[in-house]
Fold this sequence. Notes:
Radius of gyration: 31 Å
Oligomer: single chain
Largest sheet: 4 strands, mixed
Structural class: alpha+beta
Amino acid sequence: MALKQSQSIKLAQKLLPQQILVMKLLQMPMLALEERIKEELEANPALEEDNSETVTDEELYGNNENADSTEEYDENGDLKEAEERKTSMDDAEEYMDAAELDSYKYDVVNKSPDDESREFVVVDSSDFQELLEQQLALKDISEKEYTIGTYIIGCLDEDGYLRRELDLITDDLAFNYNVHATIHEVEHVLKIIQTFDPAGVGARNLQECLLLQLERKTDQTREVALAMKVIKHQMEEFSKKHYEKILTRWEIDEEDLKDIIEEIKHLNPRPGNSNNKGENVSAVVPDFIISVADGKPELSINGRNLPDLKISKDYTEMLKDYSQSKDKSSREASGFIKNKIEGASWFIEAIQERYATLALCMKCILELQYDYFSTGDDSKLKPMGLKDVASRVNLDVSTVSRMTNSKYVQTPYGTFLLKTFFTEKANTDTGEEISNREVKNFLKELIDTEDKKQPLSDDELREKLKEKGFNAARRTIAKYREQLEIPMARMRREIF
């Protein structure tokens, strides 16, 4: 077969590292951005905090508009500003939507083989595991059983459940610890752990967790015995509130059923969290702050603890010195320093780009929902989609979606996830278009005030909404109810 040479033209899209970095930073909420900046400051010595006493917005963010500005939304100006970066952002979105970013593509700007390697260890629920290991150490068991027990404890999830199958645990012990144990031996050790505090720990499912706690009750009353029968034999019926089947099977009355429910309500479905209550609750840090003065909403972007950044003067001076030298080692050092300075410059520019895009999109949202932010009246909310904002600021819909994802806005009426202001259209009986958030609020009010012994069905909810002038199909009511995380009527029923 003869060898041939040929020429061909091929189109290939290459995304710049700066564009990838901008899109990554754009989707980060405030707390994540703080951590990302700290990581970059540690990884890149050419990047420093600017500790100058005063830094103007123009110096920090270039010629972009001040986020604290209360001027009206300038459509032409914003469109022109957005157009200059639309192409690069659209390219970035297409790339990122097509595939996840490879770490080497993202880190190549700011890392080199000479960088110091750091390993970050995340400690999760150590107190809980230590408590169980202390109880295990007090048991009169063999060394083999102790090894099995510590491994089982390490397999428990944050709720205190053992989700891993016992046969897989035996394989793990054999391969990783050279401990050959049977499923019976593993189950025997698990039963020991299930006697530890807090009660219910080591269960493999909710049913076993509740039974373990009921069995540990010191006062084994008739109600406890009945509760154990219900959980053991009718767990599905109980969870779905098929109370009639429970009453019929055990030949009990509603008063007995109330006592059973009361016993079960006092059990802990998540024993692993019993010693860590409140420790995993993260405070919401708003990315935007809207205040109202004389009925006029004013927008600012929350800078919080974000440091001002600059390129190290020491590194720029070193670059000049090494660039003037002609020996090989100086040229290599010059290349390394130049790479670090470029990475620092790109990072600062990406932060500025993030700020400009956030300000641009949030100003548009503020204008579209001006009446709501002025008054806090949900009835003033207008139907608004991502496309409505994207078309006005001349950015891709996916860019706006990333910008609004996981971002919070603080208002005089509360702190809200920004996504909640993007609502679908709903129609009144007069044909007026309103936000479906208003319909959801009224729907929630109806359910909150209903008779829990006879909760309203979706059809009944639809009729009551119709009386208020809201036209919605039953399937729409069901969708809104699910979005509000409200169960169906049968699951809301109470017998008290």
